[in-house]
Amino acid sequence: MQEQFAIAGRELRSRLILGTGGFDNHEILAEALRSAGAELCTVALRRLDPAARGSILEVLAAAGVEVLPNTAGCFTARDAIITAQLAREAFETDWIKLEVIGDDRTLLPDAVELVAAAEALVDDGFVVLPYTTDDPVLARRLEDVGCVAVMPLGSPIGSGMGTLNPYNISIIIERAGVPVILDAGVGTASDAALAIELGCDAVLCASAISRAHDPVAMASAIRLAIEAGVLARGAGRIPRRRYARASTPEQGVPVLDGSDFAPRRGR
Amino acid sequence: MLVTVNGERRELPDGATVAHAVELLCDAPDGRGVAVAVGGEVVPRAAWSRTPLNDGVNVEVVAAVQGG
Fold first, then answer.
1. Interchain proximity B66–A56, CB inside 8 Å
2. Residue B21, domain CATH
3. With the C-alpha atoms ordered B11, B13, B15, B19, is the resulting torsion angle positive or negative?
4. Burial of B56 by CB count in 10 Å (0-12 exposed, 13-18 middle, 19+ buried)?
5. DSSP-assigned states of every residue in A13-79
6. Above pLDDT 90, what percent of chain B?
7. Count of domains forming chain B
8. Which residue, of A40, A82, A170, B40, has the fewest CB within 10 Å?
């Protein structure tokens, strides 16, 4: 696994994409950005609040990170398409993290609306990164309609349950011709390390960092976990085995039970 | 005329444009980081000052917030 990777031809050194949702204030967000070392950050669009203090765009610009707008809160392809068009206007970027939610309790994606929106947005010239379920067939469909990456969930947004189905995630990775970014579900550093060890190209974290007791420390922890994951994946883990395999030589074990003849050991 | 801007009924003079609706909420004339939809259609920033509003239309003015 190389240190760098690319999405739609854009080279990225950081495999941690930071979701900016949930930070108590812009100061903590700015500090967490520095700790995370992220180059790409999601932002959302909402009705302009005349009373809002400071712009998140200024925080991100000061930190030198690029904006990845999302379509959070959209429940239909139509809403997501218009939101993406608004984001293109507001942020002058064709990149869009496409979210089309199908259920407000689990926040799971609506597969049918998602594919329809992805196809329309690709046709409209967008660089589409869809938030999707961990279904390998759906991931392939999204790639087929021209998405530049797929972003399967490990578990529901903000749930912190990590990757519930590593098998599915590994199948998505095996089949994908585009980068795979684990989106949603990371609860702590080890979840991020596992995602990278499975072969994900990057991890998107929001709540795991922003809602941690110490967001700045968690941003560092997850950055280091991703670094560890990259190293571990490159190093090659040992296969899982059903039974033990001694690491100490089995020959030359002294007989210490007082008998004259060494009994056969082992079975 | 009466239009709805971000969910609130607002009185604007006849002939008012999208730019006038935006100015109700913020005084950043370049509109960087802001986008507008009128009746569910996006109006590009460059067209704000020459796009008139019709009576009763719904205007949504959005900006970046933390999210995702």
1. yes
2. 3.10.20.30
3. negative
4. exposed
5. S--EEEE-TT-SSHHHHHHHHHHHT-SEEEEEEEE--TT--S-HHHHHHHHTPEEEEB-TT--SHHH
6. 78
7. 1
8. B40
Contact B66 A70 (CB under 8 A): no
Q: Chain B contacts of A56, Cβ < 8 Å? A: 64-66
The proportion of chain A whose per-residue pLDDT surpasses 90, expressed as a percent, equals 86
Give the domain range for residue B55.
2-63
Residue B15 lies in a domain: yes
User: Which residue of chain B has the CA closest to A158?
Assistant: B68
Residue B68 lies in a domain: no
Residue indicated by tokens 């259920």: A103
Per-residue pLDDT of A216-254, as tens digits, reads: 999 999 999 999 999 999 999 999 999 999 889 889 988
CB A72 within 8 A of CB B68: yes
* Residues in chain A with pLDDT values less than 70: 1-3, 261-267
Q: Which residues of B touch A21 (CB under 8 A)?
A: 66-68
Q: Do B6 and A20 touch (CB under 8 A)?
A: no
Tokens (6 digits) for A178: 């585009």
